[in-house]
Amino acid sequence: MVDVEGCRIGIGIVIRDSTVYVMASNLQVINPAFKAQAAETIAIFRGIQFGRDCGLTPYILELDVAVVVKRINKGSHLDSASGVILLDISSLISEMNGMRIDHVPR
């Protein structure tokens, strides 16, 4: 959700199990000073943190942002405006054995 007049961007997080049962959900608001790709990258980071904090480690994270998925999986963080956030995502993923990130089309 983007609220241009109120200067807010909403992040929706839904964690499901393998049978598609909703285990947890959350809505967060972030600063809209970011470009779209940076905001999506922050949403990914917050989603991984939320799952970890709930004790619901996401072993397969499905995202519709192909560029971000590629950068995370290839480790190409430094050549991106979101490099620091991508590095934080990679650090979180390394703490969670067996976790993987896949791209799914919108």
Automatic annotation (TrEMBL):
Gene Ontology MF: a single term: RNA-DNA hybrid ribonuclease activity
Classification via CDD domains: RNase_H_like (cd06222)
Pfam families: RVT_3 (PF13456)
RNase H type-1 domain ranges (all copies): 10-106
Protein name: RNase H type-1 domain-containing protein
Organism: Acer saccharum
